[in-house]
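note to self — DONT lose this again. spent like an hour looking for the file last time. sequence + predicted structure for the chain T wanted, 456 res
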Amino acid sequence: MVAQSDSSNLHHVVIVGGGFGGLYAAQKLAKAPVKVTLIDKRNFHVFQPLLYQVATGGLSPADISSPLRALLSKNKNTEVLMGEVTEIDPEQQTVKLRYRDVKYDSLILATGVTHQYFGNDWEKNAPGLKTIENALEIRRKVFIAFESAEKEPNPERRKDWLTFVLVGGGPAGVELAGALAELAHGTLKEDFRNIDTSEAEIILLQSREHILPVYPPHLSLKARKSLEKLGVTVKTGVRVDDIRGQLVTYRDGDKLEQIRTRTVLWTAGMKASPIANMLAECADAQLDQAGRVIVEPDFHLAKYKNIFVVGDLAHYPDGEGGILPGIAPVAMQEGFYVARFIRNGIQNRPLKPFKYTDWGNLAVIGKHQAVVDMGWLKLSGFLAWFVWLFIHVFYLLEFDNKLIVMIQWAWSYFTDSKGARLITTPGKDPEIKLEDDHETIIYEATLNPTETSISL
């Protein structure tokens, strides 16, 4: 290991990112003979697997989030800094924030990934689902669509408002599609007077042959049937060609097809956070096609053995020709391992090579429908839903969150109610206006005080 910092007799571990990888590393170092500094742009940890529930009004942001300071308050060797890393200097062993520099002996980077639009400028019209802010924006778009349809007298334009297109058939897309279908066909049915929300059309576009492609084919097929039973139209083997105005253009074989819609949601593809490019420039790190950092077997960089990368940001072989997936259990185990590696290195104790324990894959598809693949155990239907429910509540980090989520889910299960159906984005009240030609309806909203209105 490298020499100790001049400012302290303790080995200083700096962790950037308060997601699963960074947080679990910090917790594992709680009693180690080190000083820990955790840096994150936000002051909270979010349980990303439940973001889709926030996006559809089933849960509030606070239900799936926990303040980082509260989570680490008992770690007396740990400080939390809210800030954004602007530069890393591997030679000086310094992380630069906008307001100060932080020296490190070991650096753990766990900043995750963001959306991948494959070179297209679609983010404005098709928000993704990686952060609380993303979830709130999707919630805003979804409920504005229903409110706008309620006020729209023209049937064709009303249909545009009631058509929802989701791009990407992985777990996030499948779970979001199922939740939207339950919302439209169940929760909201009695809430409106001028529209029948059960007429809403939810379309899931997937480029591969099956949705949930990492699952066994028979579970993917069961997931598709469950979605279709909820009223979701699933189109596989199709690729989105363009998203512009109120049209989604996709390619189905040699044919180009179009869907008119006011709401497009993106759950396809991901790319590494900007920290990866920063490492490529300052530490000569190698990146894969998705921009993830290729790491050594102990998760450090090839040229700097005191810089570690874990979680979604890391490209780590799975031993079978692929790489470990960007899911929470992978990040947790990697964070734990790197923390032990640093601790054992300080104490001159050997550590066995990292071996990922696959806990399986889970995806929920509406009320009491889910698929579970644990290798030795493959389930679908109600029992799979119960397993999904138990595991997700178990991994929420704070007791009050576990209790609140259990109560919310129980209430929703028996009443079909979703209590967080709020449009809270700052700006003017949503308005529908007829343009001069009386043909096009636009929604105008001020996103912040420095902007004027926008047309979608």
